[in-house]
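Hey, I was hoping to borrow your eyes for a little while. I've been puzzling over a protein and I'd love to understand its fold better. The fold is given in discrete form, as structure tokens running alongside the sequence. I'd be grateful if you could look everything over and explain what you see. No rush at all, and the record is pasted right below.
>
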Amino acid sequence: MNNKEIIQRKTKILVTLGPSSKTIKKIIELSKAGSNAFRLNCSHLSENDLAEYINKIRRAEEIIKKPIGVLVDLQGPKIRIGNVSEINNSLKKGDTFIFDNSKAIGNNKRVYLSNNKVFNSVKKGHLILIDDGNIHLKITSIKKNLIRTKVIQGGILKSKKGVNLPQSDLKTSALSSADKKYIKIAANLNVDWIALSFVQKPSDIKELRKLCDSKISIMAKIEKPSALKYINEICEIADGIMIARGDLGVELPIETVPGWQKRIIRTSRVKGKPVVVSTQMLESMTSSLTPTRAEVSDVANAVFEGADAIMLSAESASGSYPVETVKMMHKIAFSTENEKNYNSILANQIEETPNTTPDAIATAAKTLADELSSPIIVCYTESGSTGIKVSRVRPSQTILTITPIIQTARKLSLAWGVLCLLQKDEKNLEQMINSTKVTVKKSGLAYSGDKIIITAGLPLKVEGTTNLIRVTTVK
């Protein structure tokens, strides 16, 4: 894989780790293939697994000498069925099927349901969907700890698959007791992002924020229709957004999901929050070396829409070709970004700009870089806020973000167009600029005589104070 192409690609790739990609060697291969950050899905990991994966990623980071972001994806109040036999597991249309609270192995007659609140929340006639809506059942009767249903759309029942209740109002906390244990492990091991599943309202983010280290960024997963009512407020309070199209497409009319994807991406961009598009992007590559044409178009569409990152799930966690899938996603994104209309499409998508000094500086940096034919925009940042502000305006230039703090570099692994380099801490502005010019020249992204745009905040060690812009020449 061409390393120069990976550096030049603006859209980041978030890769889920699992049985197919659990070794340090494989993590390094995935990083070299184009992965910018790794997702750890707590739905499929024990507490020991989570700690082990985080330590492996950090070891891989040391070996390749490149900051790698880690996102821990909490399970949230997800309802799941229990374990199912690998025989007698086919549900057929018209069959009677029962949900109960017995943990005995399930079959084509019955299965365990993980959340007791469901039994008191559903009503006769309501739909129950299993496995991202692949199996549809209609409730015919309800007794204590037992729900009897009729199969409307059959399929193969598989262990631990998710359950959706699109017609039922199930009131639960945003965080389960298991989530709180995973949060503690993640915080102790200094992860960069925590994703909160099934966010419904802004207060869910606040609940997680109370349990998190202030240095950990929070990503709100939009997968419930109720969250769409508060999308502006959720974008305001979260540090990033993930469009989780699996559950969203089950609980919403599926034909409305593409429109919501566009709206959420634009809202996130206006608010200056990194946005990730996820679910089934290259699903066929779990078992095939070649994606479908529709999948290629789906990935390209997310890139054209200006998503900060695109995500692989089962393709890299349990698929047969994790490295090849990352390479394919890179090729699609890189090719899309090199379409001649790409930059103009992104520029036309932003209809409003927040009225703040940092946002004005970011817009001015983009304009100056265009006018002076600068190859890069340099952001000196400690918290990462300067880099994210410039990323928001989607310049055609590489955004070279320089920071003395590795946690900041890791966090920015999911910000569009941002390439992060570590540089020693400087005491004053002139030292910082001189050191930055040396770092830029060593990077090979600019050469002697090139004009570069530098943005920063003064005083240097105060977060969120982007208030400086300077044009300087590389010598």
DSSP finds 18 helices and 22 strands in the chain. The chain has three domains: 3-76+173-340, 79-164, 353-473. The longest strand covers residues 135-143.
